[in-house]
Amino acid sequence: MRPSIYLFGDSITEESFSYGGWGSSLANHFARTADLVLRGYSGYNTRWALKVIEKVFPATAEGGGAPLAVTVFFGANDACLSDRCSAFQHVPLDEYKQNLHAIVAFFKKRWPSAHILLITPPPIDEDARLLHPYVENLSGLPERTNEAAGSYAKQCLAIAAECGISAIDLWTKMQQFPGWQKAYLRDGLHLSENGNKVVFGEVIGQLKEEGVSLETLSPDLPLISEINPDDPLKSFDN
Amino acid sequence: MRPSIYLFGDSITEESFSYGGWGSSLANHFARTADLVLRGYSGYNTRWALKVIEKVFPATAEGGGAPLAVTVFFGANDACLSDRCSAFQHVPLDEYKQNLHAIVAFFKKRWPSAHILLITPPPIDEDARLLHPYVENLSGLPERTNEAAGSYAKQCLAIAAECGISAIDLWTKMQQFPGWQKAYLRDGLHLSENGNKVVFGEVIGQLKEEGVSLETLSPDLPLISEINPDDPLKSFDN
Cβ separation of B48 and A23 shorter than 8 Å? Predict the structure, then answer.
C-alpha cells in the first residue's frame, strides 16, 4: 500500500542510516508516505553488484510492488587504483560503464515506472585516505585518487545521459565548497554529517524535480492535523 | 528475502528516524540483515490504531512475508486526560486494555511466528508539557500527567504478561535516571537524543533475548571481510 524507495549502493549507502545519515533523513522526510529500503553493500563495486542484483531485488510472485525510485550509488570502489592496496575492488572504467548500464537496464526492465537516480562517487581526500586505509597500506600512496574518482563520476553522468535518467554529480558538487575535504568527508571517502546533508538535499531535490515529493505523495492515513477533535472517528470512515 | 521488523506506534514511532532516532539506529544496526519498516502515526491512540490496523498491515496475497518482530508503542495519547486540552485523544484505561489486547491478537493471528514487543508510554514531564502543548492550552494544567501515563504503562505490562509476550517498561526505566525529565525527553513527552538511545538499547536487548540479533541473523550477501581479495567473484558463486 505504501510505495518504496530503494537505496542500492556500497558502504556510503550501507551506512546511510547511521547518525544523521542521508538514508535516515529520507526515511524521516517520507515517514508517512514512502518506505526507504536499504540495500547497501560495503566494499562492493559494480561488478559484484551486477553479480548479486537478482538476489538483492528478487522478482515478486505477483510482479507488483514497483518502487517509486531507486538510487544507484556505485563507483567509489570501482575507482580504487589497480596497482594499489585495494586493487581487488578495482573495476576498469570501460567495464564500470558496461556494468552501470546493465544495472540501469535491470531496473528499467523490472520496474519501468521507477525513477532511477544515479549518484556519482564523492571526491576523494587523498591525505585522509592514507590515514584510514581499509587494508594495510605501507606504500605511502593512497588506494584511491580524486582524479580517478572524477573519471568514474564523469562516466556515471555520461551513462545517465545515455539512458535518459537523472544523476547527481556529487564529485563536482562537493568540490565547489572550500574545505570540502574535511567538511563533507570523515575519512577522505565516507560522508561526514554535513556530507550526508548534501546527499540528502540533492536526492530530495532531484526526486522533487521528477514529481516524487511530499506535495505529490499522499499519506496513507489521516494526519493528526486533519482529524476533527469533535468527531475523530469520522476521519477513519473511508 | 530479507526479513522485516515493523515499528507500529504514535509520534514517538513516527519520528524515530529523525536525527539519532531509535528507528534509524535499529535500521543501521540491522543494515545487512533486516528491514525496519516505519508505521508511526502522530497523535494516534489505540482506538484509532485498531480502526486502521487492517489498512496499515494488509494481508499479502501469498500470505508470506511474516516479519521477525513488531514493536507496538501506544498509550501516550490514550493517557491524555479526559478533561484537559487534548481530551479528543483520550481513551479510557479499560478500553486501552481491550484495544491493546486486540492489537496483539491481530498480530498473533496474522504472523504467529513474529515477536511482538510492547513498549509502555514514556514518563511525562508535566512542567515541560505546559510549554509545548499540541493545542492551545490556557488552563494552566498539563494535558498529560506522569501519574496517568504510569497507569497506562502498568496496564501495558499487564497485557504483555497476559498475552505471554514481552514489554519494555519505559515509564519505570527512564525514571530511574536522575534528571530523566530533561535527559530523556525534549518537550516532556517526545524523546531527546539520549531518550532515543534508551529505547534503541532496550529494543535491541529485548530482541536479542528473544533470539533476534546479529548473532542469529545472516547477512543476505557476503560481507567485504568475507571476500577473498585473491578471488573475489568466488564469494558470489553460491
Answer: no
Residue B238 above 80 pLDDT?
no
Query: Kindly report the CA angle at A50 between A186 and A203, in degrees rounded to 5?
Result: 45
Residue A190 appears among annotated catalytic residues: yes
Predicted ipTM?
0.95
CB-CB contact of A43 with A79 (8 Å): no
Nine-digit cell at A67?
Answer: 518502487
The CA distance from B41 to B39, in Å, is 7
Structural domains of chain A, count: 1
Contact (CB<8Å) A221/B31:
no
CATH number of the domain at A77, please: 3.40.50.1110
Containing structural domain, residue B149: 4-236
pLDDT digits (tens, 9 = 90+) for B63-105: 457 999 999 999 999 999 999 889 999 999 999 999 999 999 9
Residue A118's DSSP bridge partners are A72, A167
Active site residue A29: no
pLDDT in tens, B114-141: 999 999 999 999 999 999 877 888 888 9
Task: Check if B187 is active-site.
Answer: yes
Answer yes or no: do B51 and A233 touch at CB < 8 A: yes
